[in-house]
């Protein structure tokens, strides 16, 4: 759900004419796909390797970002599925890769604890930044200064 909000905000979806029922359906389908397919992604990650599997995360986000930019009416359902799978990959693959590299380099255990603490801290700080950005966008997209600045930058 976090990834879906960053690419397709609820207000943006409503702006395109997507109903709340369709939003909930797409979130439910994405979560169900992540639950059932995500179960096997850990095994696939071990077979392929964490580095290559993290590239799949980047490719899924890149696909949704390009699709949103190219298509005038992007499918929320496909975006929800791609971003839910990417979130599943993110939740285990990056941390597993980090721990494997940490052990391979022979670093101390307390430095890994510090690294995880910093990751958690900055993730929480990014959530605060998202809330602030959503507040800047506000309720009315046409009257909002951020929206107008984005329109002006797309004209160039």
- Largest sheet data: none
**What's the gyration radius in Å?**
18 Å
Give me the oligomer status.
single chain
Shape: globular
Which regions have little confidence, pLDDT < 50, spanning 5+ residues? Answer: 1-7
* Secondary-structure element series: HHHHHHH
Average residue pLDDT: 76
Sheet/helix structural class? mainly alpha
Give the percentage of residues in beta strands.
Answer: under 5%
By DSSP (H or I, 4+ residues per run), the number of helices equals 7
* Number of beta strands: 0
Distance between the termini: 32 Å
Q: Helical amount among residues, as a percent range?
A: over 70%
How would you characterize the overall build of this protein?
85% of the residues lie in helices and 0% in strands. The protein has helices spanning 2-7, 10-15, 20-48, 50-70, 76-105, 109-137, 145-155. The longest helix has 30 residues, at 76-105. The protein has 7 helices and no strands. Mean pLDDT is 76; it is low at 1-7. With 156 residues, the protein is mainly alpha-helical.
């Amino acid at each position: 759900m976090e990834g879906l909000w960053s690419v397709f905000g609820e207000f943006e979806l409503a702006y395109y004419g997507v109903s709340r029922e369709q939003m909930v359906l797409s979130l439910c389908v994405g979560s169900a796909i992540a639950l059932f397919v995500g179960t096997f992604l850990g095994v696939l990650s071990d077979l392929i390797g964490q580095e290559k599997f993290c590239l799949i995360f980047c490719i899924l986000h890149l696909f949704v970002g390009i699709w949103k930019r190219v298509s005038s009416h992007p499918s929320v359902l496909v975006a929800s599925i791609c971003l839910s799978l990417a979130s599943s990959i993110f939740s285990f693959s990056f941390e597993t890769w980090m721990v494997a590299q940490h052990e391979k380099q022979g670093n101390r255990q307390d430095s890994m604890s510090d690294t995880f603490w910093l990751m958690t801290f900055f993730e929480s700080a990014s959530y605060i930044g998202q809330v602030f950005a959503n507040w800047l966008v506000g309720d009315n997209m046409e009257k909002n200064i951020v929206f107008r600045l984005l329109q002006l930058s797309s004209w160039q």
